[in-house]
Amino acid sequence: MIHNAQLIKQGAEAKVYLAPFCQRQTIIKERFTKAYRHPTLDKKLTSRRVVQEARCLSRCQKARIDTPTVYMVDTENYLIYMEYIEGYSVREYLVTPEGQTESAQTKVAQEIGRALGLMHNIDVVHGDLTTSNLLMRSETGGSVVLIDFGLSYVSQLVEDKAVDLYVLERAFSSTHPNTEAMFEQILKAYGESGKASKQILKKLEDVRMRGRKRSMLG
To answer: Where is the Protein kinase domain positioned along the sequence (predicted)?
Structure first.
């Protein structure tokens, strides 16, 4: 039981709480155990997943990518204590009148593309890129923060990074109609900041083709 905790989100893999820690408001993420797995195996896999998420966050921080700062990792209880970010999601922003202007979308697209390029430069694959997992900090005038690295991992494979971009593209097309131009700006900024961006964007075309074939086949 987390003391004075307020549950703010529950997903398939974890619960997210807001609670005081070291005299500040803190996000505490608690990963679920899986009842269908052998308890010893489950403990090992869940602990490893917690450590992997924390390492990917720390790796991004060292590369000066804006992500929540990790304060503490408790592998026994499958908890990560991290920075609480005052702000709103890109998903929420894009449905506001301000978020629908061309200049605002260009600014946000450039920040997203640059952040993803830097993240892939250090071989971190997010695994769950959506506009809900991109926050905008209130105190910095809406600079973009990457959050929820629960499915993240380290990979040098061009394919994995292309799939990461494809997941975000699908999220844009399904959640935000008429944002094709904005996503193209994301890819343009990505191309300017990513080391292997040319190969990754070329691979994205292949991933799109496979996605279209799957849709046609049902």
So the answer is: 2-218
- Let me know: does 26 contact 19? Beta carbons within 8 Å: yes
Predicted model pTM: 0.91
| 101/204 same-domain check | yes
Q: Which of 83, 102, 123 is the last residue of a domain?
A: 83
Domain that holds residue 203: 87-217
Instruction: Report, as residue numbers or ranges, the catalytic residues.
Output: 128
Residues 116 and 66 placed together within one structural domain of the fold: no
Task: Note whether 91 and 79 are same-domain residues.
Answer: no
Q: Specify whether 28 is located in the same domain as 57.
A: yes
CA gap 117, 192 in Å, rounded: 8
Taking only the tens of pLDDT, the chain with its 218 residues reads 677 899 999 988 899 999 999 889 999 999 988 878 888 888 999 999 999 999 999 999 999 999 999 999 999 999 999 999 999 999 999 999 999 999 999 999 999 999 999 999 999 999 999 999 999 998 777 899 999 999 999 999 999 999 999 999 999 999 998 899 999 999 999 999 878 999 999 999 999 998 776 655 55
The answer to whether residue 124 sits within a structural domain is yes
Residues 145 and 179 in one domain: yes
SS3 42: helix
CA distance 26 to 183: 32
